[in-house]
Design a protein that fits this description.
By secondary structure, the protein is α/β, with parallel strands linked by helices. It is built from 18 helices and 14 strands. The protein has 2 domains: about 130 residues, Cobalamin-binding domain (Rossmann fold, 3-Layer(aba) Sandwich), CATH 3.40.50.280; about 290 residues, pyruvate-formate lyase- activating enzyme (Alpha-Beta Horseshoe), CATH 3.80.30.20. The strands form 3 sheets. The protein has a 6-stranded parallel beta sheet with strand order 2-1-3-4-5-6, sandwiched between helices. Bound molecules: iron/sulfur cluster. The site of iron/sulfur cluster (SF4) has 10 residues, from loops.
Length: about 450
């Protein structure tokens, strides 16, 4: 059978450039490739960088779906279905809102594909495709397959060395997909993770777990296994890392360069209103402990939480600059359907925009409590602009000299002048740009 796997075009946020869409390949599609029996031919299409063709000889289409690409995924599905080609869908949005999605596709896969994908293909061949495929009871990390890294067109992406050590998160913050009904949390066997790192043949790795320290004992063991591998790596963690300073020591020792941290807010009432177990009074010490070990911080902040008032933007900026936070990823609070937050906001009658393409954390789709929707949007744009002014980039410059190259590379070439870099990247293969950045930052190829 000829199978086409599609990643629909994403909706860029105001501060995103083409670099964002070319950051790294879809691990979801690469995992499906690994799960596809060898007798079938698989074509992967990333609509962010190529047009979808609608050839008649395709016998099955699979689409991976996040919330904001859902409207586009429906258009793609309609076109293939009109040609009589069955379309199946999976991904985060399908898993969190299966009932709403079902009508648009011939079949959906809820949750992990590992146990069901080969069966779906067989059912298409036999003409007995069912509507729902869902088998996640007692899903174990041992079942997670390695993505088909060898199928990546490396010239297209900034980073191809992306690795998962776990799926899901043990926490349930109300605004996160991990608060949905079909959530899982599974950790891969350490030997599988190490095998993936070795097979990539690189010394620069991005761990893209939702929460790299979901199980500190597991992370500790993993880090002990990374000793001697001479890696440079980055990952996403929660502020709970403050309670495990030995882990931070191990991270620094094994080559951790930067941590993406879900601070989310400087307002404790906002944090606790969404079941986020963060405490603002601990942030300053945490930032200092991380910096002391020569690790940079990418702070994730969410605006529009119920405790937020108009002054939250200026107060947050002040804290970020004072604590020399190296990079900022900010979001407008977005109630993803299926999450606890969505249920509450809907119950309170505060959803003001139902257009799913806008659910990408860059639009105000609900009525905030402490400010108007327009003030929330303006504040969100303002803090990005201010955080990346030349003056603030210089003010936030890391104490550690060794970090300054990568700091300026990211702040200037990715954020401040990202559009120019993106234009440049049209003529230079993305992989080369990524390699160059790694070489300049970490002196590795
Ligand atoms: S800690 Fe992070 S990944 Fe885990 S549920 Fe909360 S927001 Fe989601």
């Amino acid at each position: 059978m000829r199978i086409m796997l599609i990643q629909p075009k994403m909706n860029k946020r105001p501060m995103d450039t083409d670099l964002k869409t070319r950051m790294s390949p879809s691990l979801a599609l690469l995992t499906l490739v690994s799960l596809t029996p060898e007798c079938h031919e698989v074509i992967m299409v990333n609509e962010n960088m190529e047009e979808i063709q609608y050839p008649m000889d395709i016998e099955l289409v699979g689409i991976t779906i996040t919330l904001d690409v859902m409207p586009r995924a429906v258009e793609i599905a309609q076109r293939f279905r009109r040609l009589g080609i069955p379309v199946v869908a999976g991904g985060i949005h399908i898993t969190s809102s299966p009932e709403e999605c079902l009508q648009h596709f011939d079949a959906i896969c809820i949750g992990a594909a590992e146990r069901v994908w080969a069966g779906m293909i067989e059912d298409v061949e036999q003409g007995r495709l069912q509507q729902i495929y869902h088998d996640m009871s007692d899903f174990r990390g041992e079942e997670i397959v390695s993505p088909a890294y060898h199928k990546i067109d490396k010239s297209r992406y900034l980073y191809t060395n992306v690795i998962l050590t776990s799926r899901g998160c043990p926490n349930r913050c109300d605004f996160c997909y991990n608060s949905c009904q079909n959530k899982i949390y599974a950790r891969r066997p350490l030997e599988d993770v190490i095998k993936d790192i070795e097979s990539l043949g690189t010394r620069h790795v991005l761990f893209i777990d939702d929460n790299f320290i979901g199980a500190p004992a597991y992370t500790r063991e993993l880090l002990n296994n990374l000793r001697g591998m001479n890696l440079k790596w980055s990952a996403a963690v929660t502020t709970k890392i403050a309670d495990h300073l030995d882990l931070l020591d191990l991270m620094a020792e094994t080559g951790c360069q930067s941590l993406f941290i879900g601070f989310e807010s400087i307002n404790n009432s906002s944090l606790h209103g969404v079941n986020k177990d963060n405490h603002f009074e601990k942030y300053e010490r945490l930032a200092a402990e991380i910096h002391r070990r020569g690790i940079m911080i990418n702070a994730s902040m969410v605006f529009g939480l119920d405790g937020d008032e108009r002054d939250v933007f200026a107060r947050t900026l002040e804290w970020l600059v004072k604590n020399k936070i190296e990079t900022l990823t900010s979001h407008i609070l977005t109630p993803y359907p299926g999450t606890e937050l969505y249920r509450r906001i809907k119950r309170e009658g505060r959803i003001i925009d139902h257009e799913l393409a806008k659910y990408n954390t860059a639009h105000v789709v609900f009525q905030p409590k402490g400010m108007s929707a327009a003030e929330l949007y303006e504040g969100y744009l303002w803090i990005y602009r201010e955080f990346y002014t030349l003056r603030n980039i210089v003010s936030r410059m890391p104490h550690h000299k060794a970090q300054r190259k990568s700091y300026f590379l990211f702040n200037l070439l990715y954020r401040k002048f990202g559009r120019v870099t993106a234009l440049l990247a049209r003529v230079i293969p993305m992989r080369l740009v990524g390699r160059l950045a790694a070489q300049i930052s970490y002196k590795i190829k």
